[in-house]
Specification:
seven-stranded mixed β-sheet; Nucleoside Triphosphate Pyrophosphohydrolase; 140 residues; alpha+beta; 3 helices
Length: 140
């Protein structure tokens, strides 16, 4: 069995929305990340991944995105305690709201950063660099 996680990549004015994950987070605490989270069990459901991306962006940082989201790529990894995770990254279009910390237990800080700033930041893990590289290519 896998845990399914989704992340939303939002670009506004040539800057990408990233968070510093709370140091309390069990996975990658204190690192830069796209906004996202685990998919909840809903039984039979349509567009569960897309709705999860929208929900996570709103719950964690208070912004809304437009309805259409674009799947970019997926990866899998194993957590330190042995759980298998599938991570799916979506390119999202900003709609409204000012990004702010709504979930301090998950988000330590919010950043709007250029591609270069992300790639050169010491707290950007390799998987976040790969995600931003791929969404930047998908955005064009």
């Amino acid at each position: 069995m896998f845990i399914v996680n989704v992340e939303g990549a939002v670009c506004r004015n040539d800057k990408w929305l990233l968070i510093t994950r709370s140091a309390e987070e069990e996975h990658a605490g204190g690192t830069l990340s796209l906004v996202g989270g685990k998919v909840d069990v809903e039984g039979s459901s349509l567009e569960i991944l897309e709705r999860t991306v929208k929900r996570e962006l709103y719950e964690e940082v208070g912004i809304e995105i437009k309805d259409a989201v674009t799947f970019v790529y997926s990866t899998s990894f194993v957590t330190e305690d042995g759980r298998n995770v599938i991570n799916m990254v979506f390119l999202c279009e900003y709609d409204k709201g000012e990004a702010h910390i709504k979930s301090p237990d998950e988000v330590e800080a919010i950043h709007w950063m250029t591609y270069e700033e992300i790639m050169n930041h010491p707290k950007t893990p390799p998987w976040t660099k790969e995600s931003v590289r791929r969404v930047a290519l998908a955005k064009g």
